[in-house]
Amino acid sequence: GYYNHREALPVRRFIGGKVPLGLKRKGLRIVVTGGAGFVGSHLVDRLLARGDSVIVVDNFFTGKKENVMHHFGNPNFELIRHDVVEPLLLEVDQIYHLACPASPVHYKFNPVKTIKTNVVGTLNMLGLAKRVGARFLLTSTSEVYGDPLQHPQVETYWGNVNPIGVRSCYDEGKRTAETLTMDYHRGAHVEVRIARIFNTYGPRMCIDDGRVVSNFVAQALRKEPMTVYGDGKQTRSFQYVSDLVEGLMRLMEGEHVGPFNLGNPGEFTMLELAKVVQETIDPNARIEFRPNTEDDPHKRKPDITKAKELLGWEPKVSLRHGLPLMVSDFRKRIFGDQSTSDA
Ligand code: NAD
Ligand code: UDP
Ligand code: UDP
């Protein structure tokens, strides 16, 4: 189905400029694709709190109604079940385009669908942005750097990506999404923003989505061994979700197209991460080694100089401070509310 919201005035042209006499600055109308997912739902919370109107577009592949249910009944909130691979008509001022599975387990589940979501889905949302003159933000990924030969990764690095591997549907899909975004910017003068997000964790992550932080936390809580893939010496840099949301909003509201790395430069091996989880949840939590997955990047750490300088942004929540916030959410969801009195 097509959705049409032609009634309201475009208000974007008033941002920063003079609001004509007699017209109060209205909130913006913002679409968040993938807004029922982990990152998207936290972004939606912040946008609604700021006074904007938010339309979430989600096909619920990995997202859940529960993540946004607390906004049902809010007249500034709408939820549309829609697959971005199909065209969509809306009248909005800004588009945060997040729709895409993010966990390797999910994006490998149907790789062709992942590519269609990244390519056709992004094309549709850019076509929408062009038609209504909306500003468009793409959530790209550190995976565009592949298994990087430069460390830490700077935005000017072109990456080391396998085009025919099992991760390619995601890596190459996001690279193409970035290309489309820049081509709509250059060719059709769409206002665009590109964020390259590094590993992010926090409340509302799918408990069984296979990503390392959610796996270790759920395993330690359930008294199962934490599964370390390979030798556990590969590194990642983990960002708490509120830091990411702040970065995305600053990027959208700022003047710069990007791409910008948004991540926490604190780098951990998987064995070090397991140790932090032990300290946070259970000092006796065990570790079990498993064979690693194909094409697993060996190292990853963002250089965030550009975001610091141009967006005035840097992460504030360290892994040791962020992890307990996620653990209490996981405790509630795994054991129910009763066992949270000690959390
Ligand atoms: P998520 O899986 O929780 O959220 C993705 C959302 O998109 C889900 O609600 C899902 O149902 C929806 N979706 C997927 N395909 C869709 C389609 N075809 N049409 C409509 N909706 C669709 O993942 P997340 O961690 O919240 O990731 C959000 C975005 O951030 C993704 O684009 C991801 O690539 C990017 N990102 C995330 C991380 C991270 O560590 N979380 C890192 C890099 C990039
Ligand atoms: N599109 C959309 N909503 C809109 C405008 C366009 O979903 O409001 C889709 C459209 O169906 C097309 C894509 O975006 O598949 C690209 O649109 P564009 O106008 O750039 O290209 P064209 O339609 O000329 O191929
Ligand atoms: N990993 C692990 N145990 C798990 C899940 C993942 O050791 O249970 C490792 C994985 O091999 C990778 C890192 O953790 O080196 C991050 O994996 P994740 O799937 O979270 O994200 P990626 O950065 O690979 O997209």
SSE blueprint and pairings:
Elements (H helix, E strand, L loop, with lengths): L28 E5 L4 H12 L3 E6 L18 E5 L12 E4 L6 H6 L1 H22 L2 E7 L26 H21 L3 E6 L2 E2 L10 H10 L4 E4 L5 E3 L1 E2 H13 L6 E3 L4 E3 H11 L6 E4 L14 H7 L7 H17 L8
Parallel strand pairs: 1-2, 1-4, 2-3, 4-5, 5-6, 6-11, 7-10, 8-13
Antiparallel strand pairs: 9-12
This protein binds nicotinamide-adenine-dinucleotide (NAD) and uridine-5'-diphosphate (2 copies).
Specify Rg, calculated over alpha carbons: 20 Å
What's the N-to-C terminus distance? Answer: 44 Å
Unreliable spans: 1-19
The molecules bound to the chains, other than polymers, are: nicotinamide-adenine-dinucleotide, uridine-5'-diphosphate
Beta strand count: 13
Q: Please describe the biggest sheet, giving its number of strands, its sense, and whether it closes into a barrel.
A: 7 strands, parallel
Strand % is 15-25%
Summed up, the helix count is 9
Binned, the helix content reads: 25-40%
Q: Could you explain the architecture of this structure?
A:
By secondary structure, the chain is α/β, with parallel strands linked by helices. The chain has 9 helices and 13 strands. It has helices at 38-49, 104-109, 111-132, 168-188, 212-221, 241-253, 270-280, 305-311, 319-335, and strands at 29-33, 53-58, 77-81, 94-97, 135-141, 192-197, 200-201, 226-229, 235-237, 239-240, 260-262, 267-269, 287-290. It has a 7-stranded parallel sheet, with helices on both faces. A two-stranded parallel sheet has the order 7-10. A two-stranded parallel ribbon has the order 8-13. Strand 1 (29-33), helix 1 (38-49) and strand 2 (53-58) form a beta-alpha-beta unit. Helix 5 runs parallel beside helix 7. The radius of gyration is 20 Å and the shape is globular. The N and C termini lie far apart (44 Å). 45% of the residues are buried. Residues 87-89, 123-124, 127-128, 130-131 line the site of one uridine-5'-diphosphate.
